[in-house]
Structures are given as C-alpha cells and as structure tokens.
Design brief:
mainly beta; 8-stranded antiparallel sheet; 1 helix; 12 strands; 5% helix
C-alpha cells in the first residue's frame, strides 16, 4: 500500500472567483469568464464534505442490516464577504443598481442561481490548492449590522451539484 501521508495542507484563502455554471451543452469544465470576489471575513471560507447517507435494510430476526443503500453526502462551499458595494449586491442577490449610490433589491422571486466557483488557498510548504467546482446552487444571506463593534456581511452558501456531463463535481489541483 505504501505511505499515505504528505505535507500538503489547506490553510487560508488567496482568492475566490465565480462565473456562470456550464449549461448541459457545454464542453468545458470551468467557464472562461470568472469574476474575482474580495473582502472576505477571516476564517469564513469552508468546503464541507458531509459523510455519505446510509439507508439500512433489515430482515426479520436479524439485528444487523441485511444490506445498505449509500448516497453521497452533500458538499457545500461557504464564505462571507464584507463587500456591500452595488456590484456585489447585484451579482449575489440580483436586483439592480443605479450608479454607485443606489441598490434596488429584486421585487420578484429569484430563480435558482447556478455558478461555477474557483477557490485558491494560501501556499503552505511551497504549495497551494486550486479547487474548481463547475456547478453549484448559490444561496446568499446578509447580516447588515448597525453596531459599532462589527460590520455587515454577506454569506454565500453554495451546494456543489453534479455537472451536466460525466465530469467530477469538483477537482483539487496542487499548484506552485
């Protein structure tokens, strides 16, 4: 089997970019146009890979399962930004901006917001990771704090979805 240990670590955040998720006819893994986001809340970025869900099937007079059905656990990318500019508000929530001074929230329900996301970690031991997720369903919330000890934040929660073609739902590249 061999040794499975390494000195590769995921620590810190260099950048997050988002773009339009590929359609079912797309031949590329990630979009060519990606928008760089910024002003992240420290320690808010997280990629959660939940354990698989297990359904046990039993037979009479047996304490242990006879068989199991396993389905992959939900995978979620989360992060928060302090950026409250109109460009960020419209990009994440929808709605419209009038110049740089007025943001107007959408007046109708927003359709499912699918985005591709790329995360680049900070280098540790001379290496960093580029995580590519070609299709997510993005939900955004906000906490517009009016106190003196904390600023407002926008929180992004992106459920990783299966791309339309037979490609993996995410890739992690080790880069210099």
């Amino acid at each position: 089997m061999g040794d499975k240990s390494s000195d590769f670590r995921v620590v810190g955040l260099t950048s997050i970019r988002m773009g339009e998720a590929a359609t079912n006819s797309a031949a590329t893994y990630m979009p060519s146009v990606m928008h760089t986001l910024g002003n992240f809340v420290p320690d808010s970025a997280n990629m959660l890979i939940n354990p698989e869900d297990v359904t046990n099937f039993f037979v009479e007079d047996k304490a242990e399962p006879d068989c199991q059905l396993k389905t992959p656990g939900t995978k979620i990318l989360e992060f928060a930004t302090r950026d409250m500019g109109n460009t960020m508000m419209v990009y994440l929530f929808g709605g419209a901006a009038s110049g740089v001074t007025v943001y107007a929230a959408p007046i109708t329900a927003q359709v499912i917001n699918e985005k591709a996301i790329e995360v680049i970690t900070k280098p540790i031991n001379g290496k960093k990771f580029r995580i590519e997720v070609p299709r997510t369903s993005v939900a955004v919330g906000g906490s517009l704090r009016f106190g003196r000890s904390e600023t407002g934040t926008l929180t992004v929660s992106a459920i990783i979805m299966q791309p339309y073609s037979s490609i993996p739902p995410f890739k992690m590249h080790l880069v210099d």
